[in-house]
Design goal:
This protein is α/β, with parallel strands linked by helices. The chain contains 18 helices and twelve strands. Helix 4 crosses helix 5, helix 11 packs across helix 15 and helix 15 runs antiparallel to helix 16. The radius of gyration is 19 Å and the shape is globular. The two termini are about 30 Å apart.
Length: about 350
């Protein structure tokens, strides 16, 4: 039995906290929302329905980050990457030797960013920093402490930064196997980021539907991602695969990722057909505004760093860059600069220097 601090009280955080507690782990849940914490603290229990069933009894829920982390073996940040820097700067002063941190998901280059914040803050704690490519669940809150899990994914790739800590990360998160699959590095988890492909572009290309008056009610994946939008996504996918190849590893295609995670078809199926067959997306509705994490997070914190990695290895990413530019035009100043090379502390590095930092 380990003690876990789950940082983030949204869909993913509550699901992960409950799932661990159901398996007999000691779990604390942190959220900045006092209202959320007060509601969960009435029972210290979170109920999961549908794809996962059961009631997870947690130790406590709190808005006190020090209390959540005190004595924790594993710290899991289950928050949109727009909150990662603020959260990291809350966490870092309370880190102690021997703890393991997992960013779930990291978006792209989240582990690099976390290590950079540690450096800036002078943190010397000997900790394992890991990152996962995506959440293990497709999930939505019914209400605080009550979660509908559409489906649990078959696998989620994780890695440590530096990669020399991979075996320590694997041991720390063994309870989550076989869902968590260890891969060679956080370069792979950064590029193996299907949210980067599946969120920003379809949202921006559905702007007329999203802003329609009266509002249109449609399923994001099943109805919003048409065959033509799938063509755009496959062009973006080719670019990220080329970036991965330039860094020396093979990246799965979007279609292969859907097959591996959701068992929704074969490579004979088009991406459009795989999305239509994906049971995890049953009933998942589209947003009512462009100003959601699908753009505010997944453009600056996923597409921007993938583009930056491409520039480092001289791989052009014109379609990805077009979506970034379109987001900036349509959202304006509310779309932050995101994880540029400068923000990540890798500006001016060569590809070999970055790989040395990543692999250790």
């Amino acid at each position: 039995m380990k003690t876990w601090a789950i940082i983030g009280g949204g869909n993913g955080g509550q699901t992960f906290a409950a799932h661990l507690a159901i398996q007999g782990e000691r779990v604390r849940l942190f959220s900045k929302s006092q209202e959320k914490i007060d509601e969960i603290s009435k029972t210290n229990a979170i109920t999961l329905h549908h794809g996962l069933e059961g009631v997870g009894h947690i130790e406590f829920a709190t808005t006190d980050i020090k209390r959540a982390m005190d004595g924790a073996d594993n710290i899991v940040v289950v928050l949109p990457s727009t909150w990662h820097e603020m959260t990291a700067r809350m966490i870092i002063p309370h880190l102690v030797d021997g703890q393991s941190i997992l960013l779930l998901p990291e978006a792209s280059c989240g582990a690099i960013a976390f290590r950079q914040y540690m450096k800036e803050m002078g943190c010397k704690a000997n900790v394992v920093v890991g990152a996962g490519a995506t959440l293990p669940y497709a999930t939505r809150l019914n209400k605080e402490g009550d979660v509908h899990v559409f489906q649990m994914k078959n696998e989620v790739e994780i890695a440590a930064l530096p990669a020399t800590d991979n075996e320590k990360l694997k041991a720390a998160f063994a309870i989550a196997e076989p869902v968590f699959v260890l891969v060679q590095s956080t370069l792979k988890t950064s590029i193996d980021n299907i949210n980067a492909m599946m969120h920003g572009a379809p949202s921006l290309l559905n702007v007329a539907r999203i802003e329609a008056k009266p509002p249109q009610d449609y399923e994001y994946y099943r109805e919003g991602i048409t065959p033509t939008i799938c063509e755009v996504l496959e062009q973006m996918d080719k670019e990220r695969i080329a970036v991965a190849k330039a860094f020396g590893f093979e990246q799965r295609t979007l279609r292969q990722e859907y097959i591996d995670m959701y068992s929704c078809g074969t490579l004979e199926n088009s991406l459009y057909e795989l999305l239509q067959n994906c049971n995890a997306y049953d009933g998942l509705k589209a947003q009512k505004t462009l100003k959601t994490r699908y753009i505010l997070e997944d453009v600056p914190f996923s597409l921007v760093p993938i583009s930056a990695l491409g520039q480092m290895v001289n791989v052009p990413t014109p379609v990805i860059d077009t979506i970034i530019k379109l987001g900036k035009i349509m959202i304006g100043d509310e779309l932050t600069e995101g994880r540029t090379a400068k923000h990540l502390g890798i500006d001016g590095m060569t590809a070999d220097e970055l790989k040395k930092m990543i692999y250790g």
